[in-house]
Amino acid sequence: MAYTGLITLRITSDRHIFAALMQMEERTMVMQGTDMKIAETPEGDLTDFQHDDAYDRWQKQEGVKVIVDFAFEDLSQIELGPWERKGGKGAIINIPNDHLTNDSHLVEIAPGGKSEPEHHLYEEYCYIISGRGATNIWNDENKKQSFEWHAGSLFAIPLNASYQHFNGSGTEAARYISVTTAPPALRLYNDIDFIFKTEHAFKGRYDAGGDFFNGSGELFNKRVWESNFIPNAPDMALYGWKERGAGGVNVMLEMAKNSSKAHMSEFPVGTYKKAHRHGPGAHLLLLSGEEGYSLLWQEGGERRKADWKVGGMVIVPGDEMFHQHFNTGNTRARYLAIYTGSLGDMKPRSNRGWLADKSVKEGGWQIEYGDEEKAIHEEYEAQLAAKGVQCNMKAFIPWCTGNVGPTDERRT
Fold first, then answer.
1. Are 64 and 83 a contacting pair, CB within 8 Å?
2. Residue 26 lies in a domain
3. What is the pTM of this model?
4. Each residue of 20-42: pLDDT tens digit?
5. Residue 204 domain-assigned?
């Protein structure tokens, strides 16, 4: 019996060993060819990770009205909410895109009012929509610089320099719009105090020199104008840029050594610009012209029409979104575009930056007139006819039924 018991014990033991070996083989088969370690997912529901968005948190902390849109026919008519730190009222404008490369702050300073002194680690361009006043800027409290502005003035706040705006009228409000890089700055560092309370003077950007805001500047190749203050942007003389079409003129602006950029373009009566595309966030402010519109579309998608007039704004909301601008009034039309530039992602003013006037067929961003859909020009002629304005695109569009108008050499 002892012998039989030994055999039974051996068989039972062998079964356990065999089962253990089979389990090991199964695990080996799952992991065969890898060194992966697979964690066992715990039973029960897990909560979603909540990302702390410093930009959203800052907007709530400011208690300011937030507008999510990209087409505004008249910025002077937008209703604002309280924003005491800015001097009265304001709103923050976001494009409907999670990829916020920039934003804009629409601000109204009360009559006789002023903003609170502030400084921040994001870039900011300011364009005065209405009113008049002055701004103090300083790195050293004892060395403040002051300059005056009025409707049509454009300037840039040097990075992290302290500043304060003053309304020069005791009876009328002053309204301005500023385009800033606040969203990526706040989201990168995720620390509001760091953005607004860091005490560092970027002397390579702003040296508090006496001529910093006197309106002087220097012209460089490819229509680049370096200046920190444009007293009257709607009437500044611009330079020919025949590659963008229809006898238009342009200047590329370098201000306060910013990574973000700006430019102004103007085109004659009865004409429109060539379509082109780039990343989101380009803010186009209409500086002169009776009226017009922009078309915006993704390749192969439906076109969205945004009407504008002086004081309006259109923002390119999508990545690689084509957009095209049309003058339907009886006067020249000029716009100011403020956009993110390189944002440190590439060399500033690199070759990539000069693709705006190169055909998409050659790897650029522009659709040449001869390659655009005929329906675009037909719609434009219909818009002009309804307003009694003559189309002047015959030199560029073979199927145009209007006049020759401007040529590449800008003969009119």
1. yes
2. no
3. 0.86
4. 545 555 554 455 556 788 888 88
5. no
